[in-house]
Amino acid sequence: MDRRKFIKGAAAGTAAIGAAATHASAQKYAVPIIDTHVHLYDPTRPQGIPWPGPEQAASIYRPFLPAHYAKIAEPYGVVGMIETECSPWIEDNYWVLDVSRNEPIVVGEVGDLLLGHPDYREHLARLHKNPLYVGIRVSNLWGRNVEELLKKPQVWADLKALSDAGLTMDFGGGAREVRQLLQITDRIPNLRIVINHLPGARVPDDAAERAAWQKNTRELAKRPHIYVKFSEIFQRVDERGRRVQTGGRIPKDLAFYKPRLDEIYETFGPNRLMFASDWTNSEPMSTFGELVALDHEYFAPKGHDVMEKVFWKNSLSAYRWKKRRANQPSLA
Fold first, then answer.
1. Which of 175, 228, 235, 257 is most buried when burial is the number of CB atoms within 10 A of its CB?
2. Does residue 245 fall inside a structural domain?
3. 328: how many CB neighbours lie within 10 A of its CB?
4. Would you tell me how many other CB atoms lie within 10 Å of the CB of residue 59?
């Protein structure tokens, strides 16, 4: 989905949501949480930032660093997070590692390197020396066209290098992305892949296109190295429950979203799903507490073992992050 267009509409009327409201209903849950999708940025830097912009989402256009995240998330039992890059600038891969160096709540960074770029291998090797660097995000954002990229032999060589390094690739889960993921996993079956925001992926309106998407998604789910982030669940909808970018309402009850969540759960099973907040991108849609509560309400009836898998264990399999402080869980 185009998160920039989506968040622009979502921000209207919800800018007042903030940390105070989050802390007012803070509740720790029995299972520790590793949040697998958080954005860090600082618009006060001299060079600024490529996202977000004040015209896109005024409520989140502010410095957001690990300490800011910890203040919001730790009251809900979050003990670690993985930063997912929201910038196409190569130097921002290093900036995130720098601001996370002394912040042990950060257990990993999914960076952004352009496949096929002449400097890709050099930066991959340098960044991979830091144990916090766990993978890269590939997308159709920033004017990129993955369909065209996959026509280049160098891109395939770069994907193989990513797999050989034991790093992970984040990607979308829309109809075209799923087709591309089938193509990628056909050729590089050992590459670990994480699908971003599958609950929020736009469902094709055309019945035939939706059926093809569902079929391809089921085929993708058969492949052992595919993981899914349970994020972007909250949506803005009109009076008929159809998704809209402006106006409407944001349902907060699980019943509204459960059919879609059930479809994903039944397709991928409990060993592939991971909690992800998409903070701060999701902030205009809900408080942090509301999104944690919705996930907890959905997964709690499935038992403690499933809860552990979704809230932290599967993230270890997907990203192979390293524990940085005593309260972070480990399989040992």
1. 228
2. yes
3. 17
4. 19
The answer, yes or no, to whether residue 151 has pLDDT greater than 90, is yes
What is the pTM for the complete model shown? 0.91
6 SS3 class: helix
- Does the pLDDT of residue 10 top 70, yes or no? no
- Of 272, 275, 177, which Cα lies nearest the Cα of 217? 177
pLDDT at residue 1 tops 60 = no
Give the 3-state secondary structure of residue 67.
helix
| Candidate from 15-29, 125-139, 242-256 with smallest mean pLDDT | 15-29
**Residue 93 placed within a domain:** yes
Q: DSSP 3-state assignment of 303?
A: coil
CATH number at residue 259: 3.20.20.140
Closest of 261, 259, 272 to residue 306, by C-alpha = 272
Asked if 43 contacts 302 with a C-beta cutoff of 8 angstroms, the reply is: no
CA atoms of 106 and 69, how far apart (whole Å): 10
